[in-house]
Amino acid sequence: MEDRPAIELEARRRIYEHVVANPGTHLRAIQGALSMPMGQLEYHLRYLESAALLESKPDRYYKRYYPREMGATERRLISALRQEMPRRIVLLLIQSPGLDHRGVQERMGLGASTLTFYMRDLIDKGLVGKRREGRRSIYWVIEPDRVVRLLVTYRPSFLDRMVDRFLETWFEVRT
After folding, report:
1. pLDDT digits (tens, 9 = 90+) for 65-109
2. Does the pLDDT value for residue 169 go beyond 80?
3. Apex CA 154: angle with CA 48 and CA 43, to 5°?
4. Which of 28, 59, 152, 156 is the most exposed place for a label (fewest CB within 10 A)?
5. Residue with the larger pLDDT of the pair 95 and 162
6. 169: CB partners within 8 A, 6+ apart
7. What gap in Å lies between CA 49 and CA 114, rounded to an integer?
8. pTM (2 decimals)?
9. Residue 114: CB partners within 8 Å, gap ≥ 6?
10. With contact defined as beta carbons under 8 Å apart, do 90 and 127 qualify?
11. Which of 49-58, 82-91, 165-174 has the lowest average pLDDT?
C-alpha cells in the first residue's frame, strides 16, 4: 500500500465525497455522476473499502456504497429510499398512515402483487409496519421522523420533485 492518505488522489477524493453526499448510491450511478471510466472507478472503490472509508452492501440488484461511519439502520432506510417506487410508497404512508393494501394500491396505481412485493421489502428493511385487521392489512411508516430527517439531509441527492413537494408540505404542517 501507499504511504499517502487514502483520499489524497483527486479521483479517490471525488468518489469519497460523492458517496458521502449520496449514501446508498450504486456503481453505475457513481460512474454516471463522476464520468469516470468503470475500471478506474472500481479500482478506487475497492481501495476506499480496504482503507475502511467506504463500505458496500448488496441490495437485490445493486451493490450500494456508504460512508463507513453511517449506521446500519440508516443504511437500511436509505437503501429503500434510493428506489423510486418504495420511496413514493413511504412518502404516501407518512402523509396517510393507516392505509390498507387497497388504499395504497389505488393511490399508487399499482397491481396488488406488485404492491405486495414492495411492501414485503419495506417491511423487511424496517421502514413500514403492518398489522392485520380482519382481512385487511394496515400499513404505516415505523419511524417517520427518522425517514424525514434522512430525506432532508440527503435531499439534493434524490433529485425527485415528489421528495421536494413532500418536504415543503411537511415543513408547512410542522411550523
Report:
1. 999 999 999 999 998 898 889 999 999 999 999 999 999 999 999
2. no
3. 20
4. 156
5. 95
6. 95
7. 35
8. 0.79
9. none
10. yes
11. 165-174
Let me know if 86 is exposed, middle or buried by CB neighbors in 10 A (0-12, 13-18, 19+).
buried
Name, in order, each residue with C-beta under 8 angstroms of 109's C-beta and a sequence gap of 6 or more: none
Give Dmax over CA atoms of the chain in angstroms: 64
H-run or E-run covering 78: helix 72-81
Q: Which string of DSSP letters, residue by residue, matches 5-57?
A: -TT-SHHHHHHHHHHHHSTTEEHHHHHHHHT--HHHHHHHHHHHHHTTSEEEE
SS3 134: coil
- Cα–chain-centroid distance for residue 64? 9
Q: Which domains does the chain have, with CATH numbers?
A: 10-69 (1.10.10.10), 71-175 (1.10.10.10)
Q: What is the dihedral of CA 104, 139, 174, 151, to 10 degrees?
A: -80
Question: Rg of the chain over CA atoms, in angstroms?
Answer: 18
Give the angle subtended at the CA of 87 by the CAs of 64 and 155, to the nearest 5°.
75
